[in-house]
Amino acid sequence: MLIFSFQIDAHPLHYASAPFSANLSPSESQYLHAHQSLLSSHFAASFLSQFPAQLQRLDDTAGGVSMVSEPEIDSAVFVRAMRDVGVLGAPGRDERWEVKRGDVWVLRWRVVREAVERGDVELI
Q: Do residues 81 and 109 share a domain?
């Protein structure tokens, strides 16, 4: 399901590769690719080329500090149900939501992540 993987030197960008790009439409993937191309060119021209080679990677995790930020699991996302999903709930909480085909919800990513991965709901 990987549409592309943009690279700086020989290192693929973390968020432009599967599974992160799997939920993007072709036009969103094209935009991401173009944006990252411009951004990496800017970074290289502005400051990365001045760093030692081992410090020029944007996906580095050296020194126990990751250059890659992960999605906030508790942030709210907009989703549309592609089919009747049933009841979704937040782990460890009493809240439950009946999600039916065509419904649009604003829920925490933690609640809908698996449904998005299964294709039951889509991010909008």
A: yes
